[in-house]
Amino acid sequence: MTNNPTNSAWPNPRIWRDPASDFYADEPLQAAGVYTDSVLRNICAHGFDGVWLRGRLRELIHSTVLPELNDAAMRQRIESLRTVIQRGRQAGLGVWLYFNEPLAVASDDPFWNHHADIAGQPWEDWTEHRKVTALCTSTETVRRFMAEAAGQVFTSLPGLAGIILITASEYHTHCWSHYRRFNLNDGAPGAPPAMQCPRCARREPADVVAELIDLWRRAAGQVQPRPRILAWNWSWSMWYADPQGEIISRLHPPIELLADWERGGTTTWRNAPLLIDEYSLRYVGPSERFLGSQRAAEHASLPIHAKLQIGTTHEIATVPNLPLIGNLHRKLVRLHEHNIAGVMATWNFGCSLTLNSFAFGLFCSDPVLYSDYATFTAELARQYFGAVDVSRLREAWRHFAEAFEHHPFSIHFLYWSPLNYAPAVALGPYYRGQPLGPSWLVHELGDRFEDCLGDFSLSQIIESFEAMGRLWARGVVEYRAALSGSAAGRHQVHCAEELSTAAMIASQLQSFLNLAKFHRWRLDQLAAVHGTPPCHLPLDAVARQIIADECQNAAVALQLVRADSRLGWHQECHAYFYDAQAIENKLTPMRVAIQ
Predict the structure, then answer these.
(1) How far apart, in Å, do the first and last CA atoms of the chain sit?
(2) Which of 368, 385, 402 is the last residue of a domain?
(3) Which residues of 61-77 are buried (b: 16+ CB within 10 A; e: fewer)?
(4) Considering the domain boundaries, does residue 449 fall inside one?
(5) Kind and range of the H or E run holding 584
(6) Residue 149: enclosing H or E segment and its boundaries?
(7) Are residues 274 and 176 part of one domain?
(8) 496 and 379 both lie in a single domain
(9) Bridge pairing between strands 304-307 and 272-276
(10) Distance between CA atoms of residues 405 and 358, nearest Å
(11) Torsion over CA: 222, 255, 12, 54 (sign)
């Protein structure tokens, strides 16, 4: 089965990646083992013409400027990437490398004993719990290092389609990369550090970023065919007001702008304004920031590309896809209407090839024809599911979209709520009062529910998930009616996978709702006895009923995860946030507690 995409299909590029590729591991070294001919053909069959991998400069070069940063496995990585580039060429896919450079060096590394003169802004990496120091790009030595390194990347990887550059936030790189003028509202603890680098304190972040991107541009111009460069506007909003024209105006062709499709947007939730500052399948877009970025890019004669996620997002990241097909279709229609040059359609999770990715490829194969929703969904159903009830499919997708209108979208909620791992959380009488951890990383499970509320109240969260659950359940009924027919072969597999995903989302929503209700009960008990955690709270009839409800829900989830190993896996950190063992471990004490 294929959408029969061609290299001339809209847009270009259409970038994806494989979920087996581990962003936090050594992607270039592992690339040849991950991106086999079969994997690349499957990606191409869903309409993509490129794949991206993370690159780290010091692992891909042999520097004469800062030789202490060289890595012994450099040649093996280059050979692995060359293999994938060659395979990609045969499959019709280009290889893109993502860079967030120059990566900072640990502040206690012996490297600084010999290079104190290039030490820049320090920063404490709160996700990795270590202190690092930037290589100051306002020094001639670091600029020479970057120019040499960029040149080596392009000359050692002939046929590389291009690179994708993040120059703000994420890993600590240049001195301005974590110095904020405006709050990013990303949940990072503490205030931003003071600018300590005397060189960069005299410069604008636009000066530093534009100079860095231009080093890559000049290096790319030394090879043929010339690799493309996508400068990503991720988190430029921490320095300048939308649309960050101070930076965009400093970029020179053939640089191309990659802009976040949803970030910087607004919508409503419970009749109140709601800021969208992350990827979202709930929100269609484009955001106000994107539209401003597009105008600034046009003024600078730069093509603009959209960065979004079409499979799943932090909204629920531990299922293979969110089947919000109506929302996805509206996104694609608007992308086409705004004449977007290309699309990077996933970050380092949400990378499974599912109904969503196939829908993307189908639309891109003929955006004019498939701008009509009825035509699009009829053909999508025929190709992906076979002979199914399309009208009931549309009803299911309508209910799913309506459910997500109630999602309490916020950075606090997305980054800290236990929604991604709720099926693994046991409810019991002991309240520890431990903080919640990052929703995308493996961590000890906390129970201090307030960490994820942000500006929402606990009652609002409960009410929103009650509405989400009701509407999603209606959609699941329609999904089962549409997809439980006589499909065979690959169509039968697709029907089973979609039903499994939709049912698990229903269970996950219910698990989270029970967590929220149980926490409300805890707070009521604490208030009654003027208690503080950690403490033991005797279970009453209300608590026992919530636990009984969750036992019933968890039993359903257990059957789902036993039958479908895709469920519970978070592709960013390559770990199960819930699986059969975790659910069994939770069920045992909960059943004992209510006996």
Answers:
(1) 52
(2) 385
(3) bebebbeebebeebeeb
(4) yes
(5) helix 580-593
(6) helix 140-156
(7) yes
(8) no
(9) unpaired
(10) 24
(11) positive
Q: Are residues 56 and 79 in the same domain?
A: yes
Q: Is 164 found in the same domain as 50?
A: yes
Which residue is it, tokens 């500006």? 455
Domain count along the chain: 2
Which tokens belong to 470? 């009701």
Once rounded to an integer, what is the mean pLDDT over residues 300-329?
98
**Tally: H helices and E strands in the chain:** 17, 17
Q: Could you give the CA distance from residue 223 to residue 220 in angstroms, rounded to a whole number?
A: 6
- Residue pair 210/168 in contact by the 8 Å Cβ criterion: no
pLDDT above 90 for 129: no
Q: Is 137 domain-assigned?
A: no
Q: Of 385, 417, 443, which closes a domain? A: 385
Give how far the C-alpha of residue 188 lies from the chain's centroid of Cα atoms, to the nearest Å. Answer: 17
**Residue 154: domain span:** 14-101+142-385
302 φ, ψ (degrees, to nearest 5): -110, 135
For residue 180, the model assigns a pLDDT of 87
Residue 296: both structure tokens together: 């600034």
Task: Specify if 135 maps to a domain.
Answer: no
- pLDDT of 186-201, one tens digit each? 555 556 667 899 999 9
Kindly report, residue by residue over 214-246, the tens digit of the pLDDT.
999 999 999 999 999 999 999 999 999 999 999
Give me the amino acid identity at 320.
P
Q: Work out whether strand 535-536 and strand 304-307 pair parallel, antiparallel, or are unpaired.
A: unpaired
Q: Tell me, what CATH number does 161's domain have?
A: 3.20.20.80
Q: What is the DSSP string of 476-524?
A: HHHHHHHHSSS--HHHHHHHHHHHHHHHHHHHHHHHHHHHHHHHHHHHH
In a domain, 424, yes or no: yes
User: Taking a C-beta distance cutoff of 8 angstroms, is the pair 499, 483 a contact?
Assistant: yes
**Least confident stretch, 97-106, 479-488, 515-524, 537-546:** 479-488
Question: Rounded to whole angstroms, how far apart are CA atoms 12 and 265?
Answer: 24
What six digits make up the tokens of 338?
């705004």
